[in-house]
Amino acid sequence: MAREIITEKTEKAQREAGGRFSWTPDRWLWLVGIVALLIGSIGLFDRLLHGLRPTDLGSFVPWGLWVAAYEYFVWLEVGSLFMFTLLVYVFKWESLLPGMARMLYLTAIAILGMALILIGLDLGHPFRVWHVVVYPQWGSLMTWMIWLHMVYMAVLVGKLYIELRPFPGGERISRWLSYASLPLGIGLVVIAGSVFGVIIARPTWQGSALPLYFFLSALVAGTGLLTAQFIWFWPGRRGEAYLATARGLGRMLLWLLIVGFVASALGGLVILYPGVPAQAEALRLTLFGPFWWVYWLFHIGLGIIVPIVLLLGRTQTARRIGIAATLFTVTFIAVPLNIVIPAQLAIETVEPGLIAAYRGPGLIPYYFPTLSEWLLMLYALAFGFLVFLYGYNVLWLRPKADEHP
């Protein structure tokens, strides 16, 4: 009798608790994402109603925050999947990485959505993008970039569908889609770098090294994202296998970080040594211009020195590696910012007297993102964040500890 009374009280308490709304961490994340999306939508409406007038973009600086963020997102998306596919399917690396597949595909789609929102709205007429699909001009790099984006997204959706709805032979199809994503990813990043390289009016972007630099940046940034996601989201037992995988990713990130830093330093010296004004001035603005702190404090300090110190420590815990990878990945956005903006601010060096010769609303010789640009950036981030939350919590696209290559 007493046991029945206790059971009845327990069931009643559970029903009452289920009827009450409790603020779990997941619900807080949904609330933050929705509020950020609503606030960011102010920038979206401003862009759709007034075009590019609310921005600080003009004839001298037509590319700004949105283009830099687009490149950053493409690097993260392509680089993380490229390194994952290379390690798991090509090099057959013995690790726990295969279990991260579905989460990585979800993250890639969310990041790709953010990238396409920003680059689409950066165009003067984003709703005319269908012209590129229906009437492609294959001599244009923009055409190739848009088509590669569509094919790459189709590959991601296909791989994610196989993860959600397994079927006989699906694993083989997923493997071949992974192989196909390698040349597609390389082509997408290289063409994105080539778009900069063929802009004749920007001498700093000229040369064949920029596409290669973009590809190396994608590898480094993608490895940082892959390492951070594995360390913070792995659901299985965090024993020796987990620590071994984390340390392996940490060593890989350390070497790629050092190689990338040395390559960029050598590239800078090659520009500074001959002292060609049109090229050297853009680099001088990066190092000592009004936004010097983006390079020295945000990128070199927080993004290079601190992660290297953390990764070189004798006691390599997973948390230490995860902090280094997260810090590096977040601060890496300084790289595309320093590539895109300073090269366009060296106006007087490229065309002496041009600023004084012509004046008008779009002839702005400086650049700093306006509130409208930041709000649209917030909108894109919130959109990707909500897509990730939906896939992670609703579709249950989470890492699987029992997965094998």
Kindly provide the radius of gyration, computed on alpha-carbon positions and rounded to a whole number of angstroms: 24 Å
Low-pLDDT runs of 5+ residues are 1-21
Give me the count of strands: 0
CATH topology: Formate dehydrogenase/DMSO reductase fold
| Secondary structural class | mainly alpha
Assign a percent range to the helix content. over 70%
What's the architecture, going by CATH? Up-down Bundle
Sheet with most strands: none
Put simply, the count of helices is 17
Number of domains: 1
The CATH fourth-level homologous superfamily: Formate dehydrogenase/DMSO reductase domain
| Overall average pLDDT | 87
Can you write the helix and strand succession as a string?
Answer: HHHHHHHHHHHHHHHHH
C-alpha termini separation: 55 Å
CATH class membership: Mainly Alpha
Note the beta-strand portion.
under 5%
Approximate shape: globular
Which key features would you list for this structure?
disordered N terminus, 0% strand, single chain, Formate dehydrogenase/DMSO reductase fold, 73% helix
Give a structural overview.
It contains 17 helices and no strands. It is mainly alpha-helical and 405 residues long. It has one domain: Up-down Bundle (Formate dehydrogenase/DMSO reductase fold), CATH 1.20.1630. The longest helix has 33 residues, at 240-272.
Short synopsis of the structure:
This protein has 405 residues and is mostly helical.
Fold blueprint:
Elements lengths: L1 H18 L5 H26 L14 H26 L10 H22 L7 H5 L6 H24 L5 H28 L11 H25 L6 H33 L4 H12 L3 H21 L5 H14 L2 H7 L1 H4 L1 H4 L3 H4 L13 H24 L11
Helix pairs in contact: 2-17, 3-4, 3-7, 3-8, 3-13, 4-6, 4-17, 6-7, 7-8, 8-9, 8-12, 9-11, 9-12, 10-11, 11-12, 11-13
